[in-house]
Design brief:
Shape: elongated
Strand order of the largest sheet: 3-2-1-4-5
CATH class of the domain at 80-192: Alpha Beta
Number of helices: 8
CATH topology of the domain at 80-192: Rossmann fold
Structural class: alpha/beta
Helix content: 40-55%
Largest sheet: 5 strands, parallel
Order of helices and strands: HHHEHEHEHEHEH
């Protein structure tokens, strides 16, 4: 293993030694082997994908109602494609529900868990599209419903995203280890534009 030299830390630049010729006064560079390996791996990971791969990811993101950056971020962080969505619609008003249900019904090749305040409020089209329909639940019951959904369809939390409208929904997504949480106002607002 290469021997690393220690570079002294200068906390106060005005007390430092005089700047040598050719030095720009910036911080010392990390020239260690580990830093070089990290920079090389980072550059390889964030290299722009080929055109056909980028187009495939963009189409997949659009089918799920996501933007490319969100979809690619999940793919980079989790290493899994999103294949399941959880929509908790109990926070939406009556005027927002028709647009939301039309958008959810249009999603293809994705497993969907739908949580609504009253299952009778879900239209026939929306109830037919959902793989699992649950009445609005809070706390531990919401976590158990998410776990049942993931187990029933053999899904991974890293390949699932949640669209919710409250901090309890955000906590449930974090507790379940889901790949992505989106606020319902952002998700459905993006679709109407």
């Amino acid at each position: 293993m290469a021997r690393r030299c220690r570079i002294p830390v200068q906390l106060a630049p005005y007390e430092a030694a005089p700047v040598r010729l050719g030095h720009n006064g910036g911080p010392a560079l990390d020239v260690s082997w580990e830093a070089w390996l990290w920079r090389k791996a980072h550059a390889r990971a964030w290299k722009p994908p080929r055109r056909d791969i980028a187009l495939h990811r963009m189409k997949r993101a659009e089918r799920l109602g996501l933007d490319y950056r969100s979809y690619a971020g999940v793919l980079m962080n989790r290493g899994a494609h999103l294949g399941a969505a959880i929509f908790l619609l109990d926070g939406l008003g009556a005027e927002e529900m028709p647009a939301a249900s039309a958008r959810i019904a249009a999603i293809s090749d994705c497993r969907i868990l739908l949580g609504v305040a009253d299952p009778r409020d879900a239209g026939a089209e929306l109830a037919g599209r959902a793989d699992m329909l649950v009445a609005s639940v809070e706390g531990n019951a919401l976590g158990r419903a998410i776990d049942r959904f993931l187990l029933r369809y053999q899904l991974t939390p890293g390949g699932t995203f949640l669209v919710g409208s409250s901090s309890a929904h955000l906590r449930a997504a974090e507790d379940a280890g889901l790949a992505l949480f989106l606020w319902a106002s952002d998700y459905f607002g993006r679709m109407s534009n």
